Amino acid sequence: MMMGQGFVVQGSNGEFPFLTSSERLEVVSRARQALPKDKLLLAGSGCESTQATVEMTVSMAQVGADAAMVVTPCYYRGRMSSAALIHHYTKVADLSPVPVVLYSVPANTGLDLPVDAVVTLSQHPNIVGIKDSGGDVTRIGLIVHKTRSQDFQVLAGSAGFLLASYAIGAVGGVCALANVLGSQVCQLERLCLTGQWEDAQKLQHRLIEPNTAVTRRFGIPGLKKTMDWFGYYGGPCRSPLQELSPAQEEALRLDFASNGWL
Amino acid sequence: MMMGQGFVVQGSNGEFPFLTSSERLEVVSRARQALPKDKLLLAGSGCESTQATVEMTVSMAQVGADAAMVVTPCYYRGRMSSAALIHHYTKVADLSPVPVVLYSVPANTGLDLPVDAVVTLSQHPNIVGIKDSGGDVTRIGLIVHKTRSQDFQVLAGSAGFLLASYAIGAVGGVCALANVLGSQVCQLERLCLTGQWEDAQKLQHRLIEPNTAVTRRFGIPGLKKTMDWFGYYGGPCRSPLQELSPAQEEALRLDFASNGWL
Amino acid sequence: MMMGQGFVVQGSNGEFPFLTSSERLEVVSRARQALPKDKLLLAGSGCESTQATVEMTVSMAQVGADAAMVVTPCYYRGRMSSAALIHHYTKVADLSPVPVVLYSVPANTGLDLPVDAVVTLSQHPNIVGIKDSGGDVTRIGLIVHKTRSQDFQVLAGSAGFLLASYAIGAVGGVCALANVLGSQVCQLERLCLTGQWEDAQKLQHRLIEPNTAVTRRFGIPGLKKTMDWFGYYGGPCRSPLQELSPAQEEALRLDFASNGWL
Amino acid sequence: MMMGQGFVVQGSNGEFPFLTSSERLEVVSRARQALPKDKLLLAGSGCESTQATVEMTVSMAQVGADAAMVVTPCYYRGRMSSAALIHHYTKVADLSPVPVVLYSVPANTGLDLPVDAVVTLSQHPNIVGIKDSGGDVTRIGLIVHKTRSQDFQVLAGSAGFLLASYAIGAVGGVCALANVLGSQVCQLERLCLTGQWEDAQKLQHRLIEPNTAVTRRFGIPGLKKTMDWFGYYGGPCRSPLQELSPAQEEALRLDFASNGWL
């Protein structure tokens, strides 16, 4: 499940809310066929209802997912108490044939999976970790601290705070930026894991603006455009996501160029 | 489309994010069969992608919806600029066989449909109004003001600010509370429309706490529990929504009792 | 204390946080001298600490304030619970020689004076009302409803929701816009108080954009610039507030011109 | 200015908004007298207006402050653009006889000093660093990255993210928790500066809950109560801050005890 060891499909940048159920399964199935057997495939299977999430998780496992990454339901965020979220994830983990990774991404969902819920859920035998995209490193440190007795993996959800997350005890990352600067993000991981913090810091610094550009600043259209530049296939976004304007493209390019990546 | 003149299915309180596509259509179909022909049926057809929204809207029209109420897509709220939302709604309205009502509900979506987008969209021949659930009456007044030249209906999206919305120029409401206190909400409308503002004010005051109780405070579980109390069928919620605790039920009951409704 | 019956100095637009204590008193003193005796003078006396607020309130009363408008302390907003705010206002009201008006302005303070605190405080014999600038008309209605048994005056804190506030039971307003369009704001009040709601609505509509322009959109620099245009003395702002750019001035002008005021 | 090398008075936990101008100066003066000459004294001199901030800064320097820490003005946060803040700090730094440290503390002020403003201000010869209390380590890393060519010190504003801040390039910290666990916070600094990251991580983990307890969770009343427990003088808070309830005290104690500090 850790970066460099596998692949994630249908995280927030996979446009999963725009895909039909069968498309979602097909993405998993095709990714599985394309990947070497020893590479882990982590698939985003979250839906709004518990029942739909269970069904999607089971189906994704059947077509090849090694683990399921389950985003917090969010439309009724005012009612998503710790108790409700614990109930939801427990049900999903009980019924999932593959391990479950919690996924908290407040920029999209408008809610943080509360720390007390994470701690409770970390004790479930089929819940193996969390992808935390909120960027609050104090919170990430606290989660590491309070789940230490479990075999629970904390993963940084974005490349902007990857070094800081490793420093505080995270064991990996799931980073949109790795779609574009994959080897650099893996290099940053290696520098952290081998204790080369000065070099890690230099590299991390140069990744912050590119990372913000393909996430918060320009979103999926920015990520896809950059993938095109770097020789991958980014392709179009589904509507209502819109292509970048020429001025936005220019600003995006500058965020990479000024850090020496273009 | 106006309160007292019709019914809405699959607004936010209809738990639409928890329903499958076929369930969503069945709800519309059954409601159509149950309703007298002269009663308008407004159906919530919003999905995250433009394409899915178009398909759902067309299908709902086929099974009997008289108009479609389309909530703003929200998972990628950081990219939901006016331009993106105008594009989305224009496409949906172009292809919808029935009139479209915009739907802005920031408590659930984390975004307001911007006023400038509403004004632009009000000029589309197949967009006939907006349900605004945000409760910002200054904004509602501005929308009325700037769409005055169009035949565009502004509907209050909650009973807590219904009187104020009528006072500022709204022509109706779509109110969760009407599931419980239907005749009272209709009575409030009549008092407003006939200029009996003093009586309207007294009635409105007594509806604020019950309304907050079944929306922001206790959400759908509160609404359903109250429906049971008032002799309707509320029934269970789908998970991850949780039933109310006894203490919450007590507080809910008090919000109705202290205003003379129980 | 009601609009049309008096004047307010050192509300948020009076730049009170930029004035020294002696300047604050001098403003009150000079305003008192300039006003006819039968005109009420309401003076903003809020400070961060309870003790400073008491001292400022007493001093302002000595130099001629008829009542004190006391903004919520806000720097430690995380600790400003209902209990803390009730304690603060009770102490101030106990020691003030003149009546106290509560003042809630979340755009500046980042906190709303909670409704339960307002209801408790409304029972204090020396607390006579609240200026609510938040614009949440549901909340305003609830405050009117729950303080009805007291002789407690609810005042709209901005002209954008003045009509709606009257409709729901407010008895007056304290409006920045009245510095520029004073007679129009008073006219709106009269139309509301005499039940001429259609004319009131038309006038209210034309005041929303100008009001937003001199408050949320362009702030005090916008208000002062507009005062200059309308033949009053606006004058410079204290730093760090900055003058408007030419483009901002143009946009400000348009907000008045497009509604027929320039 | 760096932790372990000096002392700060009148940061947010010094209750500076509750002190009169003369009290603020007296605090600085007395601290200067109590401190060894070689210990740096950093004094919070921020006020809402530029003029008052300049005067306070000059006066504090006269009574012994070695440097001034200047919080962002915040009452008119809607108008505190980068341009306004750059103007404010430039004026203060131009006229201050001692070096200036920027201070961004969004939990109290409701605004972040924008990164572009920090970068511009870092070029001022009399602005030597920033205390950033927001806890966004991505932002802190970006500030380090973009001010690298200047001699500009980035200081973590809270002990919860101190290790992460060092890891990403901060050179010190100004931490409320150091009032209680001073040697432990200094120990954490040493472990970071000497590259003992594993031990640092263990220590950091045990400081997160105590730190949150004396800041966000229980604020100044919590900090003072804890100081009493640890043999320092915490003393009472000024009103409107309220003492902790017995239940809150118990929770506070648990946050320290469960991490082995009590």
UniProtKB/TrEMBL annotation, chains A, B, C, D:
Keyword annotations from UniProtKB, A to Z: Lyase, Schiff base
One record GO biological process: glyoxylate catabolic process
Recorded superkingdom: Eukaryota
SMART domains the UniProt entry points to: DHDPS
One GO location term (cellular component): mitochondrion
Active site: Y103, K131
GO molecular function, one term: (R,S)-4-hydroxy-2-oxoglutarate aldolase activity
UniProt-listed Enzyme Commission number(s): 4.1.3.16
Subunit and interaction comment: Homotetramer.
Protein name, UniProt field: 4-hydroxy-2-oxoglutarate aldolase, mitochondrial
Lineage: Eukaryota, Metazoa, Chordata, Craniata, Vertebrata
Gene: HOGA1
